[in-house]
Design brief:
The complex is a heterodimer of chains A (146) and B (205). Chain A is mainly α and 146 residues long. Chain A is 87% helix and 0% strand. Chain A starts with a helix and ends with a helix. With 205 residues, chain B is an all-alpha fold. Chain B folds into two domains: 98 residues, RNA polymerase sigma factor, region 2, helix turn helix motif (Rna Polymerase Sigma Factor, Chain: A), CATH 1.10.1740; 79 residues, Arc Repressor Mutant, subunit A (Orthogonal Bundle). In chain B, 75% of the residues lie in helices and 0% in strands. Chain B is globular, with a radius of gyration of 21 Å. The chains are: A mainly alpha (146), B mainly alpha (205). Chains A and B meet through helix 4 and helix 5 of A and helix 2, helix 3, helix 6 and helix 9 of B.
Amino acid sequence: MFVRNNLFNHQEKLLSGNDLKEFEDHLLMCEECSLIVSGFQSVASLIDDNKSVEVNGFFQTRTLQRIASELEQVRNTPGAGLQSILQPIMISFLLLAAVVIGLSIGKRFDSKHASITAHVKNVETMKSDLFIKDFMDEDQTAFNNQ
Amino acid sequence: MPFYTPNAFRMNEQELIDGLIIQTKDAIQYLVNTYQKNVIKTAYYFVSNMEDAEDISQEVFLEAIHSIKRYRKKSSLYTWIYRITVNRSLDHLRKQKRRNFLYQIGTFMQISNEGRNKNQQEPSTTDTGNEENEKRAVIENAIGSLPENQRIAFILSKYDELAYKEIADIMNLSISSVESLIHRAKINLQHKLVIYFSEYAKAKK
């Protein structure tokens, strides 16, 4: 386990003294660990290979051309600068309009709901009045019949 | 508007920033000329593909020019450009991951519908080349599968050979956090690669 836990330390030459001795002694005895260590060298070689990658000589020319054409495009787009100012204003305005519309619909619904509630209440009152009247009439009829 | 007039002058950071704000040819040329190597290489370390790295680098320079007014000088211009490069590279990887995921779903549905051609559509992994290529692919995958912050810290430290302080500035972290990230990245990598190399060693026996 010591070898497997110290692969980077060994590769970066951070092991010294007894640790280094223990590491190297184990490699002499264990074929599997020495294969692991040699395999691990690929990490270092991969990193070195990637570091030595060459930059394309035409990159600068292509990049400058692209930047020039994009900046040109921005300059030639009428109102491009204005657009960046107007866009957030328009979005804020639309949001505000949506809130106002929502509130007015809600208010209208609320007043309609209130009028329906009042109407129902009136009907209930009328019904109860009628019921009392019916009851009184009925009562009086019954009294008269007696 | 041609940029490619050769000039051999030097600009200090403030002159460069001022030039970029008003988008002078000289400043833009100086920016690309000075930073192209570092930007391309860093992008390449993240995406492992030169064409993609060059595309990312162009985007980095465009972003730097467009957003130079928002540069607050809390860090050096060099650090700021590195930060844009890392962010752009990670964005690219995320998009690529999403594209691959959608492609896999598409392929899966196609296979489910047709119920055939599986062997023809999937690239063979057994005959991809020699052992060295396979090892490289395993190592790249292991680095790619590290948690994002560990991967950034590891790449900037091992590939770009930046000092912990520089990495801390780029990642907006403390130096001790960077040390810890790199330490954990190494342990994770070690763990992942030991499994692979142990199988490889057993197969060799």
